Structures
1.
Amino acid sequence: MKTFTLPGTEITAPNVVLGLMRIADKSDDEVRELARTARDAGIDFVDHADIYGGSMHACERRWAEAMQLSSAERETWTIQTKCGIVPPDGFDFSYEHIVESVEGSLEALRTEYLDLLLLHRPDALVEPEEVARAFDALEASGKVRSFGVSNHTPGQIDLLKKFVEQPLVANQLQLSITHSPIVAQGVSANMLGEDQSIDRDRGILDYCRLNDITVQAWSPFQAGFFDGVFLGSDKHPELNAVIDRLAAKYDVPSMAIATAWITRHPARMQVVLGTTTPERVTAAAQGSEVPLTRAEWYELFRAGGHIVP
Ligand SMILES: NC(=O)c1ccc[n+]([C@@H]2O[C@H](COP(=O)([O-])OP(=O)(O)OC[C@H]3O[C@@H](n4cnc5c(N)ncnc54)[C@H](OP(=O)(O)O)[C@@H]3O)[C@@H](O)[C@H]2O)c1
């Protein structure tokens, strides 16, 4: 497993991490087996959110109840969670909501501190001074060590940065071979009439690279927005043929090739796995260091439905 020091922190982070959005109905044994398998593959970094699991903090609570971590064991994990989405109302980046959500996460996760806290999705009514006040309080009390965002544009990050003192170290964004607007737009910039050339996020990938913000790729195997995986799907025969051929060449499972398409990118992204199947964690983790060639990377990109002008 390839690791790196997450810029802006002292965290040694793997480039493949375990997302826990889907564990609400898993048993203690299933959660432990998932975690043990991840550790065996070199994954000691988990991604949560206050909203995962149907009711607030459900997946965070499921994790902690199943894991029963001692303080010493807890320190061996990097625990990240998110706040700011308030279903079904909208979003809330107020001081009160951020602090209250973190208190709820700490209690559910049975921990004294979060390694990372991300603002989950932009709040149209954000008052960045409020965010700054919340982050200052959470940092000063030792409850949160590092901060970041998710699904944010460069302008939204700049607005926060005008007031927030702490570095914003991560931006979690949707990215897979088939759902890759953050990569694809730049490849086809300036092409009138091509949907791919429409700038939907103001060059967020380049912005993150320029500002040492680590991109964390969520839904790495989903074809689109929660509409099923492309791996093995008869809706994506050409892509699966390329994936399977490369999997044979590198002697890894096909999930590893889909993972490697992201880890191969020089932006040093992290892949946030969402599978709850231990064997799939092992398979995907093998993509951490697969050295896809440029030609292979572009072939996958093209087979994923993108134009390479
Ligand atoms: N920041 C955000 O806005 C945001 C949004 C969504 C998610 N996330 C984070 O990103 C993580 C990953 O998201 P995700 O779960 O959508 O990603 P994903 O890893 O692309 O998808 C996981 C889902 O696909 C299934 N799956 C995976 N590989 C499969 C295969 N080879 N064949 C058939 N089914 C397969 C899994 O089923 P099994 O569990 O049965 O294996 C699971 O239901 C989440 O856990 C969460 O931490 C963040």
Note: The CA atoms of residues 55 and 87 lie 9 Å apart.
2.
Amino acid sequence: MRAAVLHEIGQEKLEVLDDVEAVGFGPGKVKLRIRATGLCHSDVSAMSGVLPQPAPFIPGHEGAGEVVDVGDGVTGLSAGDRVLVCWLPACGECPSCKRGQTQLCLAGFMNAGTPNFKRPGGDVFGFAGTGTFTEEVVVGAGCAVPIPDDVPFEIAALIGCGVTTGLGAAINTAQVEAGSSVAVIGCGGVGISTIQGARVRGAAQIVAVDPVTSRREAALRFGATEAVAPGELADAKQRITGGEGFDYVFEVVGKSATARTAYETTRRGGTLCVVGAGAMDDTFQVNMFELFFDEKRILPSMYGGGDVLRSYERAIALWRAGRIDLESMITHRVRLDGINDALDQMRTGEALRTCIEL
Ligand SMILES: [Zn+2]
Ligand SMILES: [Zn+2]
């Protein structure tokens, strides 16, 4: 079958090959036919080595499709079911799952070092234990979450990562208060979802911050009340908050420099919510005096910062009610052969989300 493979960490282009096989099917596993997959910034970060990932590997973790086959012992799923791919499945047994913080369950990562694919030349890994830039993939049953019939595959795919991450940051983690002031630094697919989450929560001002003009324009369509380039943020802070700082600032880039800007843009007693996934050697610094004296809450948010299945349901409910717009987030579409164009669109910031149709 066909799949897009990265041969070595640090390479910029994927190679689309047709000699790849999905492996690992057996008890507790399901085989999926992927129909749509989004390109998430984490895929690019894994390719460049910012996020740890063994190679060669197939990127993609934001996908949806149909169940092809179900292994022994799998309940609640059968061939033909429409599902989205959850890259962080909940085991249901560990202390984090029992607390309802299934986004912190590590059970799924236990399989991340096991190859999901093979080629005549050897083993191939799947990103984050999934790997959706492919026609078929074998995953644990917990990674296949049934979706209602009215949710198209391309919308379900986005809910599988970017939308859940962004909405959840505003709704679960920061719990944005009605009437508050919000700044969102980084307006790709996740940042746009954060903006939509802040709007759903009733924020009065939502300032979108991004260096790319097309993203600033998009942010305004999705609910930002104002959109500025990074160099204009200090002025916006002065103008909108009287210099005090925003009630909530979301860092959706994953770099210490933007996290520091976000910290300084948050008001005393306000909330800095870190959504971006960054590198292990990039250190965020806060001195002990400001940490104590300014009483800013620093809240990291991973995969929406709450029960993942509940977050999916909520995203679907808000989408169905027309309270969030997910269709317009898909700005580009390609077939698997166009995957390198999709990567370019991601790197230039031209695309909010590129949907790869399979
Ligand atoms: Zn667990
Ligand atoms: Zn993602």
Note: The chain has a mean pLDDT of 95.
